[in-house]
């Protein structure tokens, strides 16, 4: 084979231009298209950088090797770069002013007809995932993965210049008792025992601070066995950062500087000041701790307006400490009864029992509550929230959590449906002052809102150490989330660095002394040997790149993603393993698992 042995690739197809005219080049790539013009054959040759036109001239002895060329054949070409004739310039591609007159052509590999056109818009997603290696030839996915590489490179350069060092932490580690389910790995050498794939390198990066490394980062692989969404995968990457001798402001400033660099480099935009609001304010105004600020339509509190109104359903909710809240929907008077029924069914999935509405159209007020209230009363509420003629108020009465969940779902849905979202800009937000704890009604105990290593704000130190349970619901954490366009892009906290405080937190979370020793004995021991104040943050690398690529599907920025059922359609993972492999690691399938496999086979 002359190519590869004697002739090496000299240029990428997509990098040729007028400055290469007259040069002899060697190109290698895939046939994107082939056109036979009566003996003169034109081939668009494609590689990762783009496409260039190749001319196979009958005057040169090439046709014997080129006549059978079809789409996706892999070719090696040598030839002279020349300017395209007048009238033949293709302004749609960067190489459109030039072509390569081939003097040698060799087929390196033949190809069957692909099951789909790579850049087509209407290809079934299942088919794309089944042939992911072919889908990755599309210009869209190649562009996304190149951008991902450049983002990772930029982050590494920024953090290295700031004095951070990159340290790899183990993939086989200890099971985490808090958070999502672990992926477990059985040990052959230590039968009956298991490693866990890390949900994050949380304790490990804190141990690095105890070790004196001071500033650490890692683009870490993490694993969580949880239900998937469009912006979530079972294995993912996070930009993991930890710093010693810092407070909340230091962490926010450093990461905001990184954010500015990323947006300037990859969006070409200065992001301006980044707004900060408390968790409580975010929930009150938007019903979410990751609000989308690209449109308004904030939640309105109507509790005072309906206090002692005589409507029993609302009054019962208010008496027990609930709220009446709603959204002013621009031009919402046009929402039909059938559309409203669909909205009600949608919010029920979020835990909200139902919705009521008030409309005003051409001065006439109508409402689902008309038989309970006078038109004057309803009109006053309309005026008080500054709704306009043609708008509507959609509202609900319930406890705080279901009300927030339902109205947030409704707000996001209507924002898209009514085209209220401003896609021309990106909106950034720091959410701070998170509650440290929340009560789990299913587990009948207090649980960490972030994780059990998050420090309380200073004024609550004694409440935690002295186990003042009456104040647990009021304790605020030194935690912070970075939100971009309604997505949580990064989240972190100042960590607990005092042994007595960490043990107190474990205990208030319901852990016994034996639990603490079994699960975190090594970490509690490490805190005894001089631990610096420290904190950190983790950026969702995949989610960040997803936003920069203007897509709403995280699989578009991952080379080999899983489906919503955590399966790989290409390799068919996960798969069964043989009895011998299970025996080696001391595992026997349950009768239920055996039955599932039998039914499947």
Brief summary of the model shown:
This protein is 30% helix and 24% strand.
Describe the model:
This protein is α+β, with helices and mostly antiparallel strands. 30% of the residues lie in helices and 24% in strands. The strands form five sheets. The protein has an eight-stranded mixed β-sheet with strand order 6-9-10-22-21-20-17-11, sandwiched between helices. A five-stranded mixed beta barrel has the order 1-2-3-5-4. Strand 7 and strand 8 form a beta hairpin. Helix 5 packs across helix 7 and helix 11 (337-348) crosses helix 13. The longest helix is centred in the N-terminal third of the chain and has 23 residues, at 139-161. It is globular. The protein starts with a helix and ends with a helix. The mean pLDDT is 93.
